[in-house]
Design goal:
about 0% strand, mainly alpha, about 90 residues, elongated, single chain
């Protein structure tokens, strides 16, 4: 939803093609920021700002769930099962 929303916003506000808008959205969400495409309008920059915040928030949420699962032992149990670390 975020990728499509950002892409369509850039298409409408900045006049980018779909591929350029998609490229800018993904690069902005991942905070890579190559600088080959940049929003020129104030609204386009506001959308880019929201995408950066969304990308960082999503990354933090996913990472915290992974570490929470590992700390609670759910991840280590699956790893032990996969590699047969439990003795019979």
């Amino acid at each position: 939803m975020v990728i499509l929303g950002g892409s369509f916003s850039f298409m409408l506000l900045e006049g980018f093609t779909f591929m350029d808008a998609l490229w800018l959205t993904v690069i902005t969400i991942t905070t890579v920021g190559f600088g080959d495409l940049v929003p020129k309008t104030t609204m386009g920059r506001a959308i880019a700002l929201l995408l950066v915040i969304s990308g960082i928030s999503l990354f933090t949420y996913v990472l915290s769930n992974i570490f929470s699962s590992l700390l609670e032992g759910h991840g280590s149990h699956r790893i032990c099962q996969r590699y047969n670390y439990y003795s019979a």
